[in-house]
UniProtKB/TrEMBL annotation:
BP GO annotations: regulation of DNA-templated transcription
Name of the protein described by the UniProt record: Crp/Fnr family transcriptional regulator
Listed CDD domains: CAP_ED
InterPro entries per UniProt: cNMP-bd_dom (IPR000595), cNMP-bd_dom_sf (IPR018490), HTH_CRP (IPR012318), RmlC-like_jellyroll (IPR014710), WH-like_DNA-bd_sf (IPR036388), WH_DNA-bd_sf (IPR036390)
PROSITE patterns: HTH_CRP_2
Keywords assigned by UniProt, alphabetized: DNA-binding, Transcription, Transcription regulation
Keyword Nucleotide-binding: no
Organism: Sphingomonas ginkgonis
Short name of any one Pfam family annotated for the protein: HTH_Crp_2
Domain HTH crp-type, first and last residues per copy: 146-220
Length: 246
């Protein structure tokens, strides 16, 4: 499959052939494969690489002293595990896999060398950083204001749109390898409560969920439940004025 990072960044602007080649080289220099439920980096570690996800799902999370976990974000193909995190002295959260994951491991020096002078790429990467922050704001709104059914409906739609943007949907269906416990850890509820909400959404006919596959028969209907506005994902080619000619 085409480099999912390229697919994602080209939702912002059309890159030149040279830009695309540079990003492809970056994503193929050092490939790492991680097992299911393996930490890619721990809280307290010194971050020293940029890690684009090429295949599989991961998450950002925080652990409390008593063992409770809060999932802060889901990472899907095309996502960068904290583009500028190497600026920090140490990680303030962990990143762990949800499925087996294939990712690139890019040194700061290689990354800076590859994007030096590439205006479109730099703008697209800033766009990606701003979208990541917008998603975090939306999750804060979920926890603070949306009801349980609105939260989960919103999460499912968000994930579908994000997967669609990198070519990982099939019509109105996509893979969804999350357990009910992982959905609960992200949405601030118990697994039992998350199960009840998913059953309610199934009963309403707005989702089908089985064998790690999600089907959304009517996005508009699910969106009305979630009070969903996809504007925070900024998928309307905001950088089209920067499009390359080749």
């Amino acid at each position: 499959m085409e480099n999912p990072l390229l697919r994602k960044l080209e939702r912002f602007t059309k890159l030149s052939a040279d830009d695309r080649e540079a990003l492809d080289r970056l994503a193929s220099q050092r490939i790492r494969r991680r097992r299911h439920r393996e930490d890619m980096i721990h809280e307290g570690d010194k971050p020293d690489h940029v890690n684009p996800i090429l295949e599989g799902w991961a998450c950002r999370y925080k652990m409390l002293a008593d063992g409770r976990r809060q999932i802060l974000a889901f990472l899907v193909p095309g996502d960068l595990c904290d583009l500028h995190v190497y600026i920090l002295r140490e990680m303030d959260h962990s990143i762990g896999t949800i499925t087996p994951v294939k990712h690139a491991e890019i040194t700061l020096e290689d990354f800076d060398r590859a994007i030096d002078g590439r205006h479109r790429v730099m703008q697209a990467l800033w766009w990606d950083t701003l979208v990541t922050a917008a998603v975090q704001r939306e999750w804060t709104t979920d926890i603070g204001q949306r009801s349980a059914i609105e939260r989960i409906a919103h999460l499912l739609l968000e994930l579908f749109y994000r997967l669609e943007s990198v070519g990982l949907t099939n019509g109105n269906a996509c893979e969804l390898p999350l357990t009910q416990a992982e959905i609960a850890e992200a949405m601030g509820m118990t697994p039992v409560h998350a199960n009840r909400v998913l059953q309610e959404l199934r009963g309403m006919g707005v989702i089908e969920l089985s064998s790690k596959r999600l089907v959304i028969p009517d996005r508009a209907a699910l969106g009305r439940i979630a009070h969903f506005n996809p504007n925070y994902l900024h998928l309307q080619r905001d950088g089209s004025h920067l499009d390359a000619n080749d």
